Amino acid sequence: MSFAIDSINANRAWFVPGFVVWGLPSLGQVPYLTTQTINGTTSVMYGQMELGPAEQDVLFSSLTDHRGNQLPSEINTPRVMLRPKESSAVFVVGTESNESFRIARDPDSVGSVEVDLMIVEIGD
Predict the structure, then answer these.
(1) 3-class DSSP assignment, residue 37
(2) Which residues contact 1 (CB under 8 A, 6 or more apart)?
(3) What is the longest distance spanned by two Cα atoms in the chain?
(4) Are 67 and 104 contacting, i.e. CB atoms less than 8 angstroms apart?
């Protein structure tokens, strides 16, 4: 029975027209170490900080396809393909997760870039 349900849900695809990309590629994360003294007590703090602008995080559940349907919150092994409507470059940053993906535009573009998204569920 689960085979039949799996075959129905397998290899789904969604077309999302007119998605606006405003995110810019970052320079990556850099570790930092600092101290802070408050009322004679010194604390040492360590962490990581993102350098530069930030990529745009996109949840699948926040997207609506060309038919007006909201995408599911989880897609099994998704792949996002982009079709820019302008000459500016747009790209997926890293690998898509089952819930979201990161996207950025060319930092040399004048402003936000509009693209069409094709999201395909590859599955296992």
Answers:
(1) strand
(2) none
(3) 67
(4) no
Residue with tokens 């009322």: 39
74: closest CA among 62, 92, 89? 62
Instruction: Show the DSSP H helices in the chain as ranges.
Output: 2-9
Which residues, in sequence order, are CB contacts of 6 under 8 Å at separation 6+? none
Tokens of 88: 């500016």
> What does the alpha-carbon distance between residue 12 and residue 41 come to, in Å, rounded to a whole number?
57
**pLDDT tens digits for 22-33?**
988 876 667 878
d(CA 107, CA 53): 10
Q: What is the pTM of this model?
A: 0.72
Sign of the dihedral through C-alpha 13, 69, 23, 58: negative
Residue 22's DSSP bridge partners are none
pLDDT in tens, 68-88: 999 999 999 999 999 988 888
